[in-house]
Amino acid sequence: MSLAVALPRVGRTRRRRVASLGLLLVLLVVVVAASLALGSRTIAPGQVLAALVHPVAGDVDHAVVRGLRVPRTVIGLLAGLGLGAAGALMQGVTRNPLADPGLLGVGAGASLAVVAAITWFGVTTPSGYIWFALTGAAAATLLVYGLAGRGTAPSPVTLAITGTATTAVLTSLITVVLLTDTATLQQYRFWSVGSLAGRNLTAAGALWPYLAVGLVLAFGVGRSIDLLALGDDVATGLGVRAARARLVAGGAVVLLAGTATALAGPLLLVGLVVPHLVRPLAGLGQRWVLAFSVVGGGTLVVAADVIGRLIARPAEVEAGIVAAFLGAPVLIALVRRTRLG
């Protein structure tokens, strides 16, 4: 193919991606607006806008919008973008279409740390769980890398097997503690289903820098991951340090998925299905997949939260449960396609 023919095709592909990403951003804005406007309490759109622009002290509607809906919308956005980016990164690094942040034990490590916080340290609030969850996620990931590598760079297969085994062990420990302490079970189950209720902006303000650093690392290592897909030998010949690239990617996953889990609890399937949903639009290129996954992850989690508020009014279904129901058909289709392929 001549250069004169290839350049216009590259330009069309880029324009298509930019247009698709723009449409996805519009959808995100619509979902965010719905999150602020809809809930168990009916509030007129004008009141919602007034609450955001000119809040009135003592107004119940304004208090609901600013005190309840804004925090959970922000938390949902941050958690969704973190999990979406982490999932895309894991699938790119391991070259495994079924990889998600749980592959490194992130969710299990965070959950065990939260159980420990409730049981032995008396922590009773979601804001108190955050630092325990983030520490547990990081510790579990380091453990998986250490066991898989044993002094060398772990291969994708070894990393997957070790991560699965570690998750199984940590989950068993969690079960043992919960079965012997009903008080811990009562508190833990609210966090573990991935609820955005009861969160506040203090947590978001404290943890968003970790997500920002994780995104910088993820986009920075994007080109290296594209080259690693050609094989370590080819990537090394093109100047990529495979071990270093995987280490940076692992650090980014810890920051992204660990922070998201600390903020909203384990949101199952988000990191797995979002990259697959957006990849037809993003095409090839890890950075494009990451960009689409960031927007898609935030959209999915906030949308799941809105749906959960509406389907059981005046009660609600937690966002994690709704997200799992939305993601399950995608996972089933992916497994069937992989099996048939």
CATH architecture: Orthogonal Bundle
What is the name of the CATH superfamily?
A: ABC transporter involved in vitamin B12 uptake, BtuC
Element-by-element helix/strand order: HHHHHHHHHHHHHH
What is the residue-mean pLDDT, rounded to a whole number? Answer: 86
Provide the β-strand percentage band.
under 5%
Number of spatially distinct domains: 1
| Strand segment tally | 0
- Uncertain stretches: 1-7
CATH class: Mainly Alpha
CATH topology: ABC transporter involved in vitamin B12 uptake, BtuC
Which radius of gyration do the C-alpha atoms yield? 21 Å
Number of helices: 14
Structural class: mainly alpha
Helix content: over 70%
Regarding quaternary structure, how should these chains be classified? single chain
Through-space gap between termini? 30 Å
Apparent shape: globular
Largest sheet data: none
Topology:
Layout: H1 3-37, H2 45-53, H3 60-94, H4 106-121, H5 126-149, H6 156-180, H7 182-192, H8 201-220, H9 222-228, H10 232-237, H11 242-264, H12 270-282, H13 286-310, H14 319-340
Helix pairs in contact: 1-3, 1-13, 2-3, 3-8, 3-11, 3-12, 3-13, 4-5, 4-6, 4-7, 5-6, 5-11, 6-7, 8-11, 12-13, 12-14, 13-14
